[in-house]
Structures are given as C-alpha cells and as structure tokens.
# Entry
Amino acid sequence: MSTNAELFERARRVIPGGVNSPVRAFRAVGGTPRFIARAEGPYLFDAEGKRYIDYIGSWGPMILGHRHPAVEEAVHRAVDQGLSFGAPTEREIELAEEILRHVPSMEQLRLVSSGTEAAMSALRLARGATGRDMIVKFEGCYHGHADALLVKAGSGLATFGHPTSAGVPAAVVQDTLVLEYNNLVQLDEAFDLHGAKIACVMIEPIAGNMNFVRAALPFMQRLRELCSRHGALLVFDEVMTGFRVGLGGAQALYARALPGFAPDLSVFGKVIGGGMPLAAFGGKRAVMEQLAPLGPVYQAGTLSGNPVATACGLATLREIARPGFFEALAARTRQLVAGLLAAAEGAGVAMCGDSEGGMFGFFFAQALPQKYAEVMATDSARFNRFFHAMLDRGVYLAPALYEAGFVSAAHGESELQATLAAARESLRLAD
# Structure
C-alpha cells in the first residue's frame, strides 16, 4: 500500500505540482494532499485506508453523496450502450428539458463539458448578441480559467483589468472591468462611465470562491436595473449554486425576494452532471439562437452532451427533484453551521457562518464578509490549524479558506455529530 506522501512525491515527477487542479495541492493550508482511493455515501477513503467525512463533494456535484444507487444504475446502463458518439442523443434532450423545467429564465440551453467552457461560451454569446466588447466581473468571483476572466481590478474604477496569470496577454483583458462585490457606488459609476459599451455583467450570486458570500438584495436589484437600462446582459454563474442552493438555483431565491427578477443568461455545472464532466449555458431563445449553426457566434465541443455524463446528470436531477429533498438538505446544513458556531462560542473563538440549501461557509471573524477584501482579512492562520486538526480527526473540509463547503443527502445525524465533536476538539487545538 502506497502512502499519501509517496504518491504525492511520485505525482510531482510527472504532473506539475503533483495535482491536476491547483487547490488539491494543499498549498494554502500546508501539508500533504490525500490521495483518494474510493468513496461511499458521505465518506472518502484515502490511499492509506483512512476514512473521512466528506464536505467537498467533488467541489459540489455529489449532492446525493457518493455512489448513489439510482445514479450508478443509470451510468452502468449508459456505458453498456456506448461511451461517446459525437452525434445527437435523446438523452441530451431529456436533460435539457429537465433543467429548463426548473429554471424558467431559460428557454434554451447548450450542453458543454466544464464550467470554464460554459462561462467562456456565455461571454462570447453576450458579446456577439449585443455587438459590444466590454464585460464586467467582480473581485473574488471565479468563473473558470478562460483568459478574459483571469483578471483583477486596477488601482481605480476606470482602470481596466490586469492579468492574474502568466500567459494571459494584457490585450485580452483590456475590456474586462472588475468591480468590488456588493459595492453599489462602484456599480453605478461603472455604468455611468461605460454603460453603452458593456456587453454583460457576470456574477456569482452566492460567491463560492470567497468561501460563502451572498450578493445583497439591494445590490442585485440595482444590477438588474442597470443592465436592463443600458442593454447589457446579466449573466448568472450558477456552476456552484445551481441545483445546490435550491431546485431553481440562486436565481429562484432572488426571484422570490425580488418579484420578476431573472438573469438574461445562466451558467450551470457540477450538480447537472452528477459528478461527471458536464455543464451548460442558456437563456432566452432570441439570444441562444445567435449560436451556430443558427447564428454567427461559434461554439462547439466533441464531447458536449456525452451520453454517459447526461445519464449521470439526469438521474441526479430526478432524485433531487423529489418532494422535500431540499428542505431536508437545507435543515441538515443549517444544523451543521449552527453546531460549528456553538462550538466556536464554547471555545471562545470568533466565528461566523452562513448556508443555503446544501452549500455552506464559515469564517474566523466577528461578522460575515460582504466583499473580497473582508474575506482576506479573516483569520486564515487559525483556519489552517483548524483544517489540519479536523483532517486528523477524519473530517475533510476544503483545503483553502476561500472555498465553500457542501453537505450531501447522505450526511446523516451520526456524521453531523461526529463532525461537531471533532470541531470542539479542533477549535481548542487551533487556538
């Protein structure tokens, strides 16, 4: 049996950093990443045979837990029929119909293979549909690693983006404007300055790459008003929140609070693939018909609508659409967060947290952050100590302060109580 350390050393010889996605390397928290051998229900098992209660859930898609019987059966049936065809299938239609049934802001969608691909395609579509070049995003929101989105703000509002990754030419991001999340003043000023040039505004309605930060209702309402007034498209990146915080995604939550609210384009991933590579972007028919082969905006993908991935996603969506599913999941997640906060209070440690549906976050801070700078000001050193103490006790949290956590339907009372017992011990050790 190989140890995690041995596998990591072996991986570093053939894979940059030893991982195929940077956060897996544990660089933010230190230590050796765990190499997972298998998973079952709410648990992961590493190469050394140690069991962990899993609050990553493959970064969101495992909303039913690992190896759900109905999902596995659907995948096995699909594999028996073939792995990939490069041609249309009925299941693609069924999955699209299922998604659209729950997301009324969309009339059509297109399937792709990753959240990055979906976000990139939505931006191209927004530019093509409006005939404009400028895009707006928000600091702390992550929309995949497309060049135009790997950008941070300049020194002032009218300063355009500077690449945050080597290999991204400055010219590629010169039309990307980055604003502060939840900052109404910047939002108004940006549209005053550039409203006629803005193709779209892309936002995570609940930012899962700042841990867990909600867009405030007045901010979202104003964003919708400004986009409508200036002819810009509002693009919701629901790769994390879609079918995670509720059956209609985060946009359904805002629509309940703001009657008539809807984004123009939406980006989905993770849950709609049930753990397999699959994502989608969609909107009103008039916008979506700008895509090839009907319109001038080109987008394509050899593995788009893969028959095994669509089987996995369709089975997952049908399970989570059962009556009472999200009520039970949300209650379980709230119980976890409340228990963590109570444990912190008992240890005399400042902690705050929030959740929606099966998505949650917590910070070592007095108050919930509303923007990226406030997230960065929370106690990251304490988080790192807490993370390792929890990992030692068999609880696998996201290995970075800036990532949301996920509860699945497979997490039961025993897993929650074991997690909270570990937290009470870990908070003392992390002090």
Notes: Confidence is low (pLDDT under 50) at residues 153-160.
